[in-house]
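User: C-alpha cells for Flavin-dependent monooxygenase, please.
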Amino acid sequence: MQEGRAVSEPTQRPHKDAQTVRDGVQDLLPTIRERAEETERLRVVPESSVKELEEVGFFKLLQPARFGGLEADPVDFYTCVRDIASACGSTGWVSSVLGVHPWQIALFDDEAQQAVWGEDPDTRVSSSYAPMGKASLTDGGFRLSGRWSFSSGCAHATWVLLGGLVFSDEGQVVDFRTFLVPRERYEIVDVWNVVGLAGTGSNDIVVEDVFIPETFTLSMAETGRCKGPGQAVNTGDLYKLQFHSLFTTTITTPIIGMARGAYEEHVAMQQNRVRASYGEKASLDPFAAVRVATASSDIDAAWALLMNNIREQQAYVARGEKIPITQRLRIRRDQVLGTQRAIDAIDLLFEASGGRALANGTPLQRAWRDAHAGRVHAANDPERALQMYGASEFGHKVDPGMY
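Assistant: Done. Predicted C-alpha cells:
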C-alpha cells in the first residue's frame, strides 16, 4: 500500500467468471458476424456490439477486482479476442485494443485509477502509443500537445492513452511517457477511410497544451522493467507481466482470429463449389486438401506459440523471478512470425477460393483485407524484432527496456 493513501473498497464486485465470459462471447458471434458488413460501412463498430460485449463482461477480463474486474488469465482474454475476430476483423481488433487497456490502467497511480473507474467501472479507454506528442516538465506534471493517429475504437472511449516524449527546458529528451487524458481534453478528428479494418474507427486524436498531472502518466522505461505505481494496490501476478509482450500479442491475436474465420469460410465454400475448368467438386481436389492442411497448421502454430509464451512468462512471475530478456525476445520473435503465419494462411486460402470470393460482402475477402491492414501495424515489424532476437543469440547486448 502506498504510504498516506487508503486503498478504496471495490466499487463493484465481479458477478461473472472467465468461462462465463467466454460462453457469452460465443453466443454473440453469429450476431457479430451478421454485422460485419455494417461495421465496415459505418467505419466504426456498432454501439450495440460494444454494449453486448460489455454486458457479457468481456471488457472486465483484465480489469482489477477492486473495480469490478475479473483479473482473469490473459489466455482467456486472448481466446475471446481470437473468436470475436473470426466473426468480424474490425470488431475483434477494437475489442482487443480496448480490452487490454484496463491492464495498463491498473499500473497507474491509484489516483488515476479512481478517476477512470471510481464512478463508472465500465469506463473504456482508447490509445495511440507512438510518441507523436511533445510534453514539457512543469510543476506537478507536464504540458502535453500533439496529434496522434490510429486510435482504434476511440468513439467508444472517454479517456485515451497517448505516447509522448518529455523535453527539458534545454530542449533535450529526458523521458518517453504514456499520458492518460480525459475526453474533455482532446479532439477526435475523423480521418479513417481505409481499405482494411475499415470498421475500427481508428481516427486521430488532437491535444493542445493540456496539463497532465504526474500521477496520470507512466514512464515507458519503468513499464519496460515490469514496474508501475499501481502495483502497490493491484498486487496480483497479472499486473507483473511484461507490457510489450502483452500489447504486441494484443495486435497479433485478432489477425490469427481473422485467419481462423477465413479458414472456416473457405472450407464451407469449397464444400459446395464446383470447379468449372475441371468439372469436379473442389472438396474432392487433393491439392485443395493440401492447402487446407497447410493453412490450418500455420494458424494453429501461430496460436500455440503465442499462448505458450504467455504461460512461460506467467511461470516466471509465479516463481518471483525476473522475466529474462531472452524470453521477452522470443515472445516478439513468435509474435511477428505468428502474424506472418496467419497472413500466409489467409493468402493461401484466398488464392484457392475462386472468383466468387472476390464479391463485395463476402467474409473471405474482408478477412483478407482486414488481416493485411493489421499486418502494417508497428508491432508487426518483423525485421526489427527478428534482428534483435538474432543479435541476442550471437551474444550482443539488447536493451530490455524496449522489450
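User: Anything notable?

Assistant: Confidence is low (pLDDT under 50) at residues 1-14.
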